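Project standup — Tuesday

K.O.: blocked on the structure for the chain from last sprint. Re-posting the sequence here as requested.
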Amino acid sequence: MDGPFATALSLIASGDPALMQIISLSLRVTLTAVLIACVIGLPLGAALALARFIGRGALIVVFNALMGLPPVVAGLIVYLMLSRSGPFGSLGLLFTPSAMIIAQTLLILPIVVSLTRSVVEDLWVEYREQLHSLGAGRLRAVPTLLWDGRVSLLTGVLAGFGRASAEVGAVLIVGGNIAGHTRTMTTAITLETARGQLGLAVALGIILMTLTLSLNAAAWGAGQWARGRLG
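H.V.: unblocked you, prediction finished:
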């Protein structure tokens, strides 16, 4: 195993262009998907927590179920929507980074919505009387509740990021794993391992694990700081 690890470290140390391109694309796709999921999911989850309407319970069940949506199914759905015979085929997004962003957003969104609903619902029960006394109704309380639950929400966002960054099936279906265009860290690891090119695969694995550990360490530190336990 010395050979692949030595090659991997050499690729990382030298800033190999192919390695950097794969990492850059992976981060761009996943971070964009996380951002879109948060922009849609945070207010949607808060609305689902505070609003009362017919079918709310069924909608909650659907979002909870979609948290376990198999990535290949998400990829298939996006593929059918973006293929030439699909309703959005004319946009020409299939086998592009945009298609990969859509697929990853579909995977992350239910996590963000469900966690936001749970956090905001609990906080509303806890602070409802206090917020009412300040003249804040359900709608006006949303920003306050989201801010108060930011640490818990950050954990959910990181969970979504982790799911997207480690995902292979969906991005492979809609992206095609095209070198220099739609090849991400996970799809490259799969391909290079199958080809026996373990050096690049190990290098990408090291980068992926380091990134995941760093983000989780940052989230833990932010949580400790928010609770006043640092120092």
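K.O.: great, moving the ticket to review. The radius of gyration is 20 Å. The chain is about 80% helix and 0% strand.
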